[in-house]
Inverse folding.
């Protein structure tokens, strides 16, 4: 990964101050963080309780539930390869689990209604041999909510997804992960087991400045929910992939699908939404995407902003203390506010399509006026000229129509309807008719136009 343009001294000091404050006030044995901008590492910093032994971008920490995002990418790969559909019930590909009616999409977005945790003892602090089979993970009553009715975070749900990957790929989850994500992205410091140099996990006493070592259990069948170790450098590579896609792993449209909200969040539990293996958090006017993670001895957060093209990773080796999610969000906010992204220079389209150019300008839905703008790659932008309304961007399709990319019209079809003489009669957007004039008499408008036409008060 190449280094991007250096941050300003004031920005670097603000970032270091935030990290140093987090480690000091959070009483963490160590804390390491890094920020990526425009595809390169722009800053990194660390603090440690041991003088001269600060961690760096090559030091492994356990990342807990950030592992789930990797598992989700593997499932989306299987979908893109045609081996499954996200709407498939789990039973179709992984029979005999007693939760087979839950769909793959619901498991990815934590809307399957499954329990949050496994039966006791606590799975994160006991060896995976304690629960060697899926039935040991699910227990006697694995479903606690109706499937599809809302978000309820489930660690066993991602264990099922890991087993699904193994069933369809014919190999272990760890091997499939290495082959299909880690190697293509150059993430050679992300591993199921710790590989030196790595930080040891610690618990810090809540009322005294003393520490206790935490065990690092192999989670066994639960590994797809929280097993991995990684570094700030590797996780920034992963964040760049999640922001832009990489054809070697997953195309841009599929990672964009991961970022879209999958279900309403639990009331009062999330300061945002959850997609398919990705959390989304709103901070002011910005949306940060990524995931957090925790296992005994470690806390981790990876966040990125598409709009600002900035990512941040914060890793620490304490069971509790530093709020890594808040720290990562603050690091992003510091950079985005102090050194906002410089927009690309405006350039005209490489060529003119007269037929498309003729469609631009004002269009009326009844009396409401909208504008249609031509974008690159024959895309269109449609938005109201007054007030707040249903604005959307559209992607051109081979059949001459356009598909909505966002908002109310996401997935809806925009098409040009022509009269018998070949001229444009109107635009049809999900059955809504848009005409060149308000209630154009010459266009096919549902319900027709009153024969008396427009009139004044005394008409």
């Amino acid at each position: 990964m190449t280094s991007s343009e250096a941050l300003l001294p004031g920005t670097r000091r603000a970032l270091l101050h935030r990290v140093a404050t987090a480690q000091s006030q959070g009483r963490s044995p160590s804390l390491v963080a890094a920020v990526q901008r425009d595809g390169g590492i722009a800053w990194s910093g660390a603090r440690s309780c041991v003088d001269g032994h600060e961690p760096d971008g090559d030091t492994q920490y356990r990342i807990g539930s950030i592992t789930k995002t990797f598992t989700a990418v593997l499932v989306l790969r299987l979908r893109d390869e045609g081996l499954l559909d996200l709407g498939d019930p789990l039973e179709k590909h992984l029979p005999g689990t007693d939760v087979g009616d839950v769909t793959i999409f619901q498991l990815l977005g934590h809307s399957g209604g499954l329990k949050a945790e496994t039966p006791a003892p606590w799975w994160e602090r006991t060896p995976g041999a304690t629960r060697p089979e899926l039935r040991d993970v699910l227990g006697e009553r694995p479903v606690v909510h109706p499937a599809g009715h809302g978000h309820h975070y489930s660690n066993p749900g991602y264990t099922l997804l890991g087993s699904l990957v193994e069933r369809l790929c014919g190999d272990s989850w760890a091997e499939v992960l290495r082959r299909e994500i880690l190697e293509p992205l150059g993430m050679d410091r992300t591993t199921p087991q710790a590989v030196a140099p790595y930080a040891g996990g610690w618990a810090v006493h809540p009322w005294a400045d003393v520490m206790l070592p935490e065990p690092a259990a192999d989670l066994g069948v639960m590994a797809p929910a929280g097993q991995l170790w990684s570094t700030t450098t590797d996780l920034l590579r992963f964040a760049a992939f999640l922001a832009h896609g990489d054809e070697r792993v997953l195309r841009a449209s599929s990672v964009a699908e991961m970022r879209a909200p999958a279900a309403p969040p639990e009331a009062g539990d999330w300061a945002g939404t959850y997609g398919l293996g990705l959390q989304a958090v709103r901070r002011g006017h910005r949306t940060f995407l990524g995931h957090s993670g925790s296992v005994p001895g470690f806390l981790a957060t990876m966040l990125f902003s598409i709009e600002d093209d900035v990512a941040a990773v914060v890793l620490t080796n304490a069971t509790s203390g530093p709020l890594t999610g808040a720290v990562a969000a603050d690091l992003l906010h510091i950079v985005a506010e102090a050194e906002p992204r410089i927009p690309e220079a405006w350039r005209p389209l490489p060529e003119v399509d007269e037929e498309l150019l003729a469609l631009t300008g004002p269009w009326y839905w009844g009396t409401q006026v909208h504008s249609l703008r031509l974008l690159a790659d024959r895309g269109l932008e449609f938005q109201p000229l007054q007030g707040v309304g249903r604005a959307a961007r559209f992607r051109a399709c081979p059949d001459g129509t356009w598909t909505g990319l966002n908002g109310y019209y996401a997935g809806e079809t925009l098409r040009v309807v022509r009269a018998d003489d070949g001229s444009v009669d109107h635009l049809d957007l999900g059955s809504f008719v848009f005409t060149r004039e308000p209630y154009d008499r010459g266009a096919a408008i549902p319900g027709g136009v009153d024969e008396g036409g427009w009139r004044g008060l005394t008409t």
Q: What stands out?
A: The CA atoms of residues 190 and 230 lie 4 Å apart. The longest strand covers residues 286-295.
